[in-house]
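cache lookup: miss for this entity combination. No prior model stored, computing from scratch. Input as submitted by user K.M.:
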Amino acid sequence: MQPIGRRRWAIAEGHISSRSSFLEEALVSHETACILNARDHQAHVDITLFFTDREPVGPYRVTIAPRRTLHLRFNNLSEPAAVPRDTDFSSVFEADVPIIVQHARLDSRHAEISPLSTTAYAEA
Amino acid sequence: MQPIGRRRWAIAEGHISSRSSFLEEALVSHETACILNARDHQAHVDITLFFTDREPVGPYRVTIAPRRTLHLRFNNLSEPAAVPRDTDFSSVFEADVPIIVQHARLDSRHAEISPLSTTAYAEA
Amino acid sequence: MQPIGRRRWAIAEGHISSRSSFLEEALVSHETACILNARDHQAHVDITLFFTDREPVGPYRVTIAPRRTLHLRFNNLSEPAAVPRDTDFSSVFEADVPIIVQHARLDSRHAEISPLSTTAYAEA
Amino acid sequence: MQPIGRRRWAIAEGHISSRSSFLEEALVSHETACILNARDHQAHVDITLFFTDREPVGPYRVTIAPRRTLHLRFNNLSEPAAVPRDTDFSSVFEADVPIIVQHARLDSRHAEISPLSTTAYAEA
């Protein structure tokens, strides 16, 4: 397979609701970054979070093995700090090898589950 | 962090329903532009709204501090004019520094909440 | 405003359900192409529809005045032929001036309304 | 019509729930890649699936006739192996002619149907 991807990505939208209608983990309200490393080298990804009224937090450091995908829940990030709930944020991804990033959210504040998804913004 | 973003963006879809099933602000039907300014300089963004059968309105002027994100609700824009409800529109964003723009909507006309999101169209 | 947009766009997804839970036009299941002409010249757009097992149909001819947006429902297209319901299709847009195209769908087969949206694929 | 499309695409998100609230095929939870071949030559597309903790599977080989669209359900792929349910995956598409790929999902784990869609990541 030919190489595919880019090293720098951004997701301008981000917001994790503290409320969920379900206890099952798959249905808890969450923000996810689906990250594909289709290359034959490990990918080291630095994620920085931006907020409305405070300085950015990061980098969150993630490693993805060669030829693997990681569907990373922002809910589970803890170092250097947990992601605050009910708070608007954006995220920037910087990798040492080309990757592909897609943004997904599931909102289950109400009894229905409301998913959304979009390919993130990429830069060479 | 290396610079990331583009100066000019467009969202072809836009429509704010006058109806909502909820009084809570987070669940009122809304259109949002999530704007990330990951740079170390303030971003001045001019937004122009386009309609089906009248001249464009704008610019709406927004300022985003360095290293901040703004999840801007079109519902709250008031100068030079409020955004009409139940009316199709499009929007163009012109910034003096590179930014990232993502379009999001929450539709709560009915009892369920229906969110959507997409990375906007970018031009250098 | 500086020129913005591209002349050629594609939406690979398309499917209009013949079923809707509502009679109100805004809530009838529909496929929409939101087309922004931010330029000072009229835009002539030729739309071709592609199917799974028959030859393409088109062009559907649409004109958008300068500085106007058109949220075009595929449901309403009639010349050269109505868009078949419950049938997969794709669409290609070719314009004589740069435009911006966003794909939107509302699915109301069931009692809830399920919208989605994505910026279309653009080519110079 | 001028040629349109790219040869290589990626969808970082992928997940087929084993649960559905409906028996009707259109409403069973599914992941779809809508693939448009707007060209006058047959398109041969090789699809590779990537997982979180095992080696990639593929290629899945798909042929699309000239001037046709294929709304391909990952649920139906069987060679070289069925796509596992309740498992995160990503996909890469490599074609011998330019195509357009859009990602769509329908999630019907609960009584409501929750669709999403996004233009995939493209590379020349």
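stored under new cache key. Chain D touches chain C at residues 1-2, 4-5, 27, 32, 34-36, 38, 67-71, 100-102, 104, 111-119, 122 (CB under 8 Å).
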